[in-house]
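Q: Protein A?
A:
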Amino acid sequence: MHRTAPRLARLLACAAVPVMLVATGCSDDDGGSKKKASSSPSQSAGAPSASPSVKAAAFAKLPPEVCKTVGEKTIDSLVPKAKKKEGEALPTSDANDSASCFWNGLNDEDVKDLQFRSLTVSFKRLASDPTLGSGEKRAEKFAEQQVTKATTADGAKDAKTDKAEGIGDGANLVATDTKKDDDDYRNATVVARTGNVVVTVKYSGAGFQGAKNPAADDIAKGAQDAAKEAVAAVAAANK
């Protein structure tokens, strides 16, 4: 067990964690030139059109406490003996547009079955913009980018991507295997869109010092369970 502590310290230190234009109008402030302006074909043809409008985004804000978007019971189940059960909020430039929380821990109750788990829950809110499009459309594009990113993260190979049913307005599950410090990790990433918010959940597990790795199905289920709670937290924050 004394060999495990420094190794875990290295793992935690190296752990990878998953980060407006305004249209203006013109007015005629010269009341005496209306007749002249209306008689000029060239000016009429070149007059600015009305500012384009886009559908208002469904959600105006993210959950105020990102580390509480997944319940304590779920954390106990997915990350037994978490280093910080309350989670660690990751730095962000604007908590109303993006937010992430991270948990990890080593279950060492059985010295012959050392099990490491980590969980990252991230949110990205995209506002509607006359130039860039509606928040929902922007979120759809961002979600696609997140799925592509998950297929190669941490040097993953042979990624498998499937639909994840019953999560938000649409979700994908990306399953991968990676290797760090001679240990094999099983990973599942769920990318879900709810309105104009994209929720990305990454759940990873590994058996240390010869212990058996977690089943891929268990890791996939854990990621989906956490994603469902995170998606529900977005709706609750905007009531």
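Q: Protein B?
A:
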Amino acid sequence: MASSPQPPGPPAVPLLIACALGIERFALRGADDRAGAPGPARVLRTGMGPRSAGHAVRTALNDGAMRYAAVIASGFCAGLAPGMHPGDLVVAAETRDPDGATRCTDTARLVAAVTRAVPGRRVHTGPLTGSGRVVRGPERARLRTTGAIAVDMESAATLRAALSAGPRPVAAVRVVVDAPEHELFRIGTVRGGISAFRVLRAVLPAFHEWHRSLPLPRR
């Protein structure tokens, strides 16, 4: 006697990739069409700054389809460590800002996935700190003394907002667009920006690999 067909299982937990800028959103376009993704994926443009990022992420996670999503904060950042170059990658071990620190999920596995996605690019791992404004010169040096390796305006607020909406895997992956020896106002900015854009585009499959490897609950 033939067995009756089994009903389909519940859908996999989705992936929300949050970025601030239109150019970052453009680099990450097509995330939901990538083969091998374990569930639906959405790229969310939050707007600049921690307040905008937090609000946009909380709103997105209130949507029933994204309620239990794993969250990755991505886009560009400023490197703090001497020797960093545009196009280097930062995989955060934790994000920090004046409201506290948020540990990232399975950083070692994500570093390995990023390294495979963009072979030959330097991948830095450590604390990613938040700022409410673009930092330069002395402020960049001060942040470096805290142990942070890079700074951006949205990652810490993004991950904190994600966890405030419920437990979930969270991560932050940024591409260095300027660094101590390569600040944005210097000659070479355009070339560095193009390099960072291409790296951000190329790293997208690593996000799906990390997502696929997680012991995600199914809802």
